Amino acid sequence: MTRARMLGTALAATALLLAACGDEDGATEDTAEGTAEDTAGEAQAPEPAEIRLWLNGGDTPDSMREWLVDAFEEQNPGSTLAIEEQQWEGLVDRLTTSLGSTSETPDVVEVGNTQAPTFTTVGAFSDITDMLPDIGGDDLLPGFVEAGSVDGSTYAVPLYAGSAYVFYRTDLFEASELDVPTTMAEFVEAAVTLKEDNADVENFSGFWLPGQDWRDGAAFLWDAGGDFAVEENGEWVGALSRPESQEGLKLVQKLFTEASGAPRDGNESEPHVPFCAGEVAMMLRPGWVRWSIDNEEIGCPEMMENVGVFALPGSDGTPAPVLLGGSNVAISAASPNQELAKNLLELILSDDFQRQYAENGLTPAKLSLADGLGDDEYAAATVEAVSNAKLTPAAASWAVVEGSRVLEDLFVAIAGGGDVQQLAEAADAAITEQLR
Amino acid sequence: MTVSQRAAPPVRRRPLLPYVLLVPALAVLLAALGYPLFRQAVMSFQEYGLAQQFGQAPEWVGFDNYARLVTDSYLWTVLARSIAFCLTAAATTMALGTALAVLMTAVSRGPRLTLQIALLLAWAMPHLASLTVWQWLFESQYGVVNWLLTGVGFDQFTGHSWLLNPLSFFVVAGIVVVWMSVPFVAFAVYAGLSQVPAELYEAAALDGASGRQRFRMITVPLVKPVLLIVGLLQIIWDLKVFTQIFVLQDAGGITRDTNLIGTYIYRLGLGEGQFGLAAAASWFILLITVGLSLYYVRILIRDEEEL
Amino acid sequence: MTAVATATLPERRTPPRPARSPSRRRRRLLGVLTVVIAAIWAFPVYWMVNSSLLPYNRIRNPDPTFFPLGGTVGAYGRVLEGNFLSSMRISMMVTLITVGAALLFAFLAALALSRFRFRGRKSFVVTVLIIQMIPAEGLFISQFKLLEGWKLLNSVLGLSLLYIAAVVPFTIWMLRGFVAGVPRDLEEAALVDGCSRTQAFFRITLPLLAPGLVASGVYAFLQAWNEFTLALVVMTRPENMTLPLWLRTFTDANRVSDWAGIMAGSVLIAVPVMVFFLLVQHRMASGLVSGAVKG
After folding, report:
1. B210 in contact with C at a CB cutoff of 8 Å?
2. What is the pLDDT of residues B223-248, one digit of tens each?
3. Of the residues A30, A242, C49, C57, which has the fewest C-beta atoms closer than 10 A?
4. Where is this region: Disordered (chain C) (predicted)?
5. ipTM score
């Protein structure tokens, strides 16, 4: 449940994002900033109040929080902003109860992009459709806006995004005389070769893929043209047993058995532990893993000189479709401070604030700010990975599929060497039932 | 002096007093549980989801929620599994807990206090910490258990997954559950044993009873009420076990093969915000639990008559 | 008569405990066995303390570190910087209210149930038992609404009310067993000796109940002290966190959890429980037989 924050709708952000990144568009930025200031100036000063903002986990660093508090309190004299950090674990329980209470609701909340549809469809968030032009409009990451919209009205907008890319050991590549792979076939070959060349290291992974990790395994499924579920005649049905999906899953099984040394039933948390133990040549992980490796207490900074990154290549040489993750932000419908909450939301989506996400290695909510990620290899990998990233099926009850852990079970069984066709058929039946 | 004397029925002339004594407990139960239970009962007959939580009117669906539960064949598998796990874990806990309690009465103060503190430490350890530590101990690649087993020559445990095989999964889960519940049983039974007045033993000794006889005729009957209650509570709690399973499933194993009632209901209802279904499930489990403990309840009620 | 004479003089140490008197050697062997069991039981606790003194990359490492050599108490300093004291204050208040009220209410009820016969007694007993069986997982949503209506969200009193109700059924059952276990002959004997009913109660019944009260009290204490889900939904403001909520702030399911901090925080949370226990533990065996214990 805790890691189930990726998802929303199947709208690909892809081409749009790439195009926008290429645009050297100073004008857009100016307009956006100008608008934000205008609105702040125009708005009738609402009754001062304390505004509560819930941010989750450690993705938004302290410096950004401080900046936000200062900026908000300066723009809204008399009002204060309290940022209360929430843990992803237990978040849905807390939102379910608190958002319905006028006295105790937070005013503005961050939710995982998988969780957004859960709350938008039930009226927990305020309708902010009319704000869209002021806070970025078409410049906002489309997949996330889609995840936050119902029947043409928008209730939640993107906060930031992120996708996994490949971390690899440059020294091991050199020892095995390998180049950075540019196609999926090369990637798989490299993974298998690396495992063979380092067979003497216990638990060694040419490509680290723990059994439960369907979220990263999805890239191989999608690259082969398959999917978890497809819509047919208005009905969602499991699609894992179809030929394209089968091809992808068989590749996953090959990686499990011939390239990975990760636990067959483990999960993907703490990838830096095997990495620092020298047991991993490649792994597909979100960008923050860099900081845990480069931390004296947590990881192994001395290994950083041998760490390289690249976006997972697809079969055709363009980046493979990896799972798109990130967060949405919304205003609680029960909040008595709607005006102030809107002011805060504008500030959160202002270029000044969003640019800071880019500086911290996350993809900002606006397409036009992606170049703020910088130009080192990490930035390049981030941009490339997000450029072709994909969401899980847009079915209304997809959360049920994730909640039942049928996909974890499927991947663990595949990792254990089970019959892929048979396993997929069983999983399809379960998924079709759950999506009805 | 025999124990059965205590069963002489008392005659009381102030019929109001007992009711007055019950008032505080009743009031607090009614205040904190009355409305929520009523609401849960109502919800179990409704299509009640997140939308209703945020203000939409719920739709009455009669017994649909219940029908959906009962017709789900997987539920019955899970139920059987839960009962098996519950009875095994509860029996083990009771046996170990009682044994430790008796052990405490048989040793001198030093060892006894050492054991009591160890048990209390285990009991007092925040669940976040204890579940994390147990997970680490049984990890397949970095776990201390495998590290030790491999160290003493059992090479087949290198990278062995303790959670992949369902039976092995439940053994690990059982160890964690028993480890957490034994302290309570040991303390309660030990308290029960210490409550037995020494005078009874003396009197019995004067009557010429052997140690074994005294244990059987004095200790057992006097501790029986405590044993019965603690045993019943173990069954109730072990049938509802949730956190331990939930956390272990995240760490490894196959969820479908390891779901117990608690995790199954959670994934079915609460996890997806289907509160009506979850409410029906709660009442359903309650029914099963009552059925399961009927034997116990009978004994307790019969004792009730005697008092 | 002997009984009453002893009972009214609790300080008198009656001779050994009962059932079987093991030979010295056997007793020593059992003592060793007891300590070994204690060590096994406490191993996960030791691992928690050990981990609290180590940096992350030594806790999470293919080679386990069994002794925190070269460790640091840095994690303790780190976790103490945050909301520890205010959370401790909230947890303390909630727990003490819960233990006090639950024991008192349950004791009164247990007395009524095992010392009186009245109409509705049996149904009350069975109802309380069934309340125990209700799966609590789904109730928190309705309980939130309840407290919201009473304006008791984010309040110590509100959370305490839920906790008391959660432990009272159990404590009633538990104490009922203990009250029933007090031989009525003793009370009757005291009455014959000329004690008033109240005197008989305070001199005979209460001391005999002490072990039961302690066992139930420790249970209630731990329930309130370590409860998570209800606290999570009821206490939503950071200044109102209980200790288990505070402990969760060191986890990050999506990134890197501060394991040393979590373990250090857990140690800090366990300390007051131990203090409470050490304060009350001698009562656990102090009915009329505590004197039995040597050393």
Report:
1. no
2. 887 888 888 889 888 988 888 999 99
3. A30
4. 1-23
5. 0.86
